[in-house]
């Protein structure tokens, strides 16, 4: 790894600048992530969903899972997942039943309404448009390559249940 700056030019980023070209990479990612989260929540509101519940429905398309499995897949605590699942259950999107693999646990199963909501809310084109507005096809391809690399690198980094990287030592 090199000590070269990770931004264009020789100067350090200027986090107080109004021009995003001068912001640190983390601030850029945070700003874009918040915009996409707001727009996704507005899109998902039509199905009484949000950015926390929608991925759960997508994971359940593959079959029932325990809350622990869902928490791990979504990078949240079991307590947080319990609240997410309770909201999805109130909306009629999931059911909780005894887990046939472990009587101490409950299996979360996708209801027909949840399957329909996941498929309709996640239609490819509107979803991609929300995440890639302002980019041409080549830029979207490049962005996807970089994001996949970042997601994979994050999986290799040990994290606490809330997603924070634990201190070394």
Automatic annotation (TrEMBL):
The lineage of its organism: Bacteria, Bacillati, Actinomycetota, Actinomycetes, Micrococcales. Keywords: DNA-binding, Transcription, Transcription regulation. Gene3D superfamilies: Winged helix-like DNA-binding domain superfamily/Winged helix DNA-binding domain. It comes from Isoptericola jiangsuensis. This is DNA-binding MarR family transcriptional regulator. One of its GO terms (biological process) is response to stress. Residues 22-152 form the HTH marR-type domain. It holds the Pfam family MarR_2. It comes from the Bacteria. Residues 1-23 are annotated as: Disordered. GO terms for molecular function: DNA binding; DNA-binding transcription factor activity. The keyword Transcription applies. PROSITE patterns: HTH_MARR_2.
